[in-house]
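Help wanted!
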Amino acid sequence: MTARKEIERKLDQFEFTAFQRRVLLACYGIKEGETLSYKELAKKAGSPKAYRAVGTVMKNNPFPITIPCHRVIKSDGKIGNYSGTGGVERKKELLFKEGALDKQD
DNA sequence: TTCCTGACGCTCG
DNA sequence: GCGAGCGCCAGGA
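Answered by r_m:
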């Protein structure tokens, strides 16, 4: 039983659409210390042009840490937003700890 | 069923 | 190089 299976099972407990699950699973696939843009994530989810909808999905992310939504940043390199605990500051902190961010601020 | 909104991206001035 | 505006898809009211 892979960890991914566990996530899929948990997501199955929520009334998520296929698109939402694809986005969350794609996000879950982001390695530690690695970042992905919303556009890239949308592409991985199978809808390259749905980057706008990706943000909506991330906001409804039920597992902010298990599913590393903080590793998703804007294509211009900026942090973007974060609805999880601590907001963008927490997001930057997590990225910094994982080595995905060179420096704070 | 339709309209509005959103953790964004790209193009134009 | 920077800022503003328009466009993209999906979900919620």
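OP: Thanks! One thing I noticed: Strands of chain A lie at 36-37, 72-73.
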